[in-house]
Design goal:
It is a single chain. The protein is an alpha/beta fold. The chain has one domain (about 1-145): Dehydroquinase, class II (Rossmann fold), CATH 3.40.50.9100. Helix content is about 35%, strand content about 20%. The chain has five helices and five strands, in the order E-H-H-E-H-E-H-E-E-H. It has a five-stranded parallel sheet with strand order 2-1-3-4-5, covered by helices on one side. The longest helix has 16 residues, at about 130-145.
């Protein structure tokens, strides 16, 4: 069975109460639930990690290189814009990678338009709120299907 790893960075634990105009009203649990439902529909499993600690996310990406993880979906939060450590960990991972954002980062403050992760990811989904999660799962599965056995 396909194994997808969904990663959330800092402050995303506060979904549901953090700036609903930008991030919607769905909680992190609700976001993960819709992603898991889409994964199940695509004959995949979904593991989730949310952390406020960059090193923990880097370590989890390193583990993903050998633990059977088939694809990664990452909403790195603020780390998107400056974490070269995450970028390097993603680059080492030979698996499809989808960068995901709840808000349209390109329609916000100028610093949010810059992602150091995009160049090492296969695609980006931004601005669709909670609806972006099933899209990201389908994209990850599609990328795996295109790679073949």
């Amino acid at each position: 069975m396909t194994q997808i790893l969904l990663l959330h960075g800092p402050n995303l634990s506060q979904l549901g109460s953090r700036d609903p105009a930008q991030y919607g009203t769905a909680t992190l649990d609700e976001v993960v639930t819709v992603a898991r439902e889409q994964a199940r529909a695509g004959a995949a499993t979904l593991e989730h990690l949310q952390t406020e600690h960059e090193g923990e996310m880097v370590s989890r990406l390193h583990l993903a290189r050998t633990d059977g993880t088939d694809a990664v979906i990452i909403n790195a939060g603020a780390w998107t814009h400056y974490s070269y450590a995450l970028r390097d960990a993603l680059e080492m991972l030979d698996a499809p990678k989808v960068e995901l954002h709840l808000s349209n980062v390109h329609a916000r403050e100028s610093f949010r338009s810059t992602s150091v992760l995009t160049a090492v990811c296969d695609g980006v989904i931004a601005g669709f709120g909670i609806a972006g999660y099933p899209l990201a799962v389908r994209a990850a599965i599609d990328l795996l299907d295109r790679r073949g056995p």
